[in-house]
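Here is a tokenized protein:
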Amino acid sequence: MAPMGIRLSPLGIVVFCILGVGVIYHLYAGVLSSRFASFKQKTTVDLRDLLALSMDAAVQGGREVKRIREDNTLDEKSKGETKEGASEKLTLGDLNSHRKMFYLIKNTYPNIQVNSEEHANAEGEATLWTRIIPEEILAKIPGEKEVPANKITVWIDPLDATQEYTENLRKYVTTMVCVAVDGIPVIGVIHKPFTGYTAWGFVGEGSNVAPRSSYNTNSPKVIVSRSHSGKVKSFVHAAFGNNTEILPAGGAGYKVLALLDSTDKEQEMADMYIHVTYIKKWDICAGDAILRSLGGQMTTLKGEQIDYSGSEGNMGGLLASIKTDHKGLVKRLPPWE
């Protein structure tokens, strides 16, 4: 009697192969999924990783900002008015950038608080961080910097200088991410979508930007808001004299970069940055962190440190300087209520 054997039809072979591939895929996907799950559920966060992630988020958001501006598909709307009565703009660039930035960070670290200027009404992005840390970060920050996740607040501005964005004044536009620990800014990223330039600072660890060699505080150039100016000109003249040069500009990120050394020909240079009206913390947190990483300061007009936890706004005005006697500058300012 001939020995019995198992014979599969061609269809059976195909089914068997498909099932085999499926099993391998699910096993592999399961390993990846479990690794991401364990990573996401960590109760501590490596700030070096979070810096790299913040840079990636700012760049990805910036790509959306640039694409929508160049395609001229802004879909411009109004969010209402500021406390000073100026119109607050909202564009597709703001919303798309928000979705890219917010969900990239939140998908990677679900346990940390992320505050954004915008709110996504559509389904979230499924993007996951590549976990690649740029060489420029590894060179300056060789080791891990773990902190408890519940101490972290991330502030993101998906499109700083929306008013100027709608006017096609591209040089003022930035995307920004800031990481605060216990309300103190420690990591700041400011990205210029239309040039690809990215500035970052990590307090106590390093930065890829630097202050200029000197600053003039006797006859300073003071950079101020062009769209939310309030009474800033009279305030500055009262402090530093009527001949003080005032530079109106858009975007808080752009204004902070004006205090630093730059190879960008479109970037104006200033000796200090002053703001006298209400301003949101996602506008200023990244710049505050970068200045701190370089020994500079950003305070209220009374010289108080700004707390980046709790409420989203800063009512106390703003003075930013670097390589100067900051307390001395505060004393020169008119009384502030």
About this structure: The chain is about 35% helix and 25% strand. The radius of gyration is 24 Å. The chain has a mean pLDDT of 87.
